[in-house]
Amino acid sequence: MKILILNGPNLNLLGVREPGIYGSRTLDDILAALAPVAASLGVELTCLQSNHEGVLIDRVHQALGEGMDGIVINPGGLTHTSVALRDAIAGVGIATVEVHLSNIHAREEFRRHSMIAPVTIGQISGFGAQGYELALRALVGRPN
Ligand code: CA2
Question: Which atom of ligand 1 is nearest to 111's Cα?
Answer without folding.
Answer: 11
